Amino acid sequence: MPTLSQSNSQKIFVLIAVSLFSAIIGYSLIKIMESGLLSRQEGWESSIVEEEGKEKQDQASLDSSADSDLQSGWQSYSGTIDISQSAPGGATHVLIGSGGEEIIYLAAGDDKLIVAESLEAEVQGPIRDLEDSNKKLMQVERVVFK
């Protein structure tokens, strides 16, 4: 017959095991939710693709080649993604060229620009002209890290 101390130690062991199992399940669910936020939100198809082994470009430039990975109507620019406090037209970020010049304002329907802040990357998506200035705004659909 088990003694009182054995019974309590068994209860503590079961409680610790259940707590550990719950923590592992919770952590897994959080990671699944985070990956879902980066891949799809509010109907915008988006992805963050990391490219390894690709050489850095010296200057930010418009990709004028017919890139088969770009969807119809999308354009591609390269540079450093920076947060913008005063961007017009709903933009939250700006793409900065290697010379420090602002290339294009950026907006996204999810957190992909926040993830890519201060990193050199290629941004892809449709572009529209801003009404109040001669600048352009890209609705970023894909970020490719350099």
Structure report:
This protein has helices at about 5-40, 110-115, and strands at about 40, 45, 45-50, 75-85, 95, 100-105, 120-130, 135-140, 140-145. By secondary structure, it is an alpha+beta fold. The model is unreliable at about 40-70 (pLDDT under 50). Strand 7 and strand 8 form a beta hairpin. The protein is elongated and about 75 Å long.
Rg, Cα atoms, Å: 23 Å
Beta-strand content estimate: 25-35%
What is the overall number of helices? 2
Low-confidence stretches: 38-68
Going by helix content, strand content and strand pairing, the class is alpha+beta
Mean pLDDT: 75
The major beta sheet can be summarized as: 5 strands, mixed, barrel
Q: For the largest sheet, list the strands in their spatial order.
A: 4-5-6-8-7
Question: Which features does this protein show?
Answer:
alpha+beta, two-stranded antiparallel sheet, 27% helix
Short description:
The protein has 146 residues and is of the alpha+beta class. The chain has two helices and nine strands; from the N terminus they run H-E-E-E-E-E-E-H-E-E-E.
Secondary structure elements and pairings:
Blueprint: H1 4-39, E1 40-41, E2 44-45, E3 47-50, E4 74-83, E5 93-96, E6 102-107, H2 112-115, E7 120-129, E8 136-139, E9 142-145
Parallel strand pairs: 3-9, 6-8
Antiparallel strand pairs: 1-2, 4-5, 4-7, 5-6, 7-8, 7-9
